[in-house]
Amino acid sequence: MARPNLGLRTRTRRTVVILLALAATAAAGCSGHDPYRPGESIGVFHVAGRLVSTTCGTTPDPWEFDVRLRHDSTTLFWVQGDAPIAGQVDGTARAILKSSNTQTMRPADEKTKTAACTMARSDVLDLVLAPMTAPVKDVGAATSFKGTLTYRFTATEGSSCDDQLLDSGGDFATLPCDVQYDLAGTRTGDAK
């Protein structure tokens, strides 16, 4: 899924980007021969995001990006650079797509007896495709969508992540923390 620049420092931002890429790969759902082009194309969508809430700290608002949507009957694929994320579209044209991953932000320090900082990130994209007629049997005609995208960052059990907090020179206002956007996507063209 798309990743906002959370105002993170370069080192941490790079680690978070790796975490996000791994999350997308771990949650990939695919069919067909090319894992990065599953099913049939719906098209390229331009997405505008409006920040609803954040407890993580500085977060971009507004936030815009492009994504390719693909489908296999009522399975929806969100394709954006990494392996696709898949979700089932229900009879009301609603789909919930989820991904998650865990990444070590800082290794353990044997000299100071400090545990590693390992963070989990989970993404939940909840959207409704339009225009659709219920009951939805094929999502290939979608030209827009609206929904929410929520990111949650959590230090895993046994981790020592105080150095990732703003008070300690890190990038997060608090942990765990959440970022939520309202999204609106409009089809802008064909995708191969």
Spell out the key features of this protein:
192 residues, mainly beta, eight-stranded antiparallel sheet, 1 helix, 8 strands, elongated
Tell me, what's the shape? Answer: elongated
How would you classify the helix and strand content by structural class? mainly beta
Largest sheet: 8 strands, antiparallel
Low-confidence blocks of residues: 7-32
β-strand amount:
35-45%
Secondary-structure element series? HEEEEEEEE
How would you concisely characterize the structure shown here?
The protein has 192 residues and is mainly β. It is 9% helix and 45% strand. The protein has one helix and eight strands; from the N terminus they run αββββββββ.
General description of the model:
There is one protein chain. The chain has 192 residues and is mostly beta strands. The chain has one domain (10-189). Helices cover 9% and strands 45% of the residues. The chain contains 1 helix and 8 strands; from the N terminus they run αββββββββ. It has one helix at residues 10-26; strands spanning 40-54, 63-72, 75-79, 85-88, 94-106, 117-130, 144-155, 177-189. The protein has an 8-stranded antiparallel beta sheet with strand order 4-3-2-1-8-7-6-5, with helices on one face. The radius of gyration is 18 Å and the shape is elongated. The two termini are 19 Å apart. The model is unreliable at 7-32 (pLDDT under 50).
Give the topology.
Blueprint: H1 10-26, E1 40-54, E2 63-72, E3 75-79, E4 85-88, E5 94-106, E6 117-130, E7 144-155, E8 177-189
Antiparallel strand pairs: 1-2, 1-8, 2-3, 3-4, 5-6, 6-7, 7-8
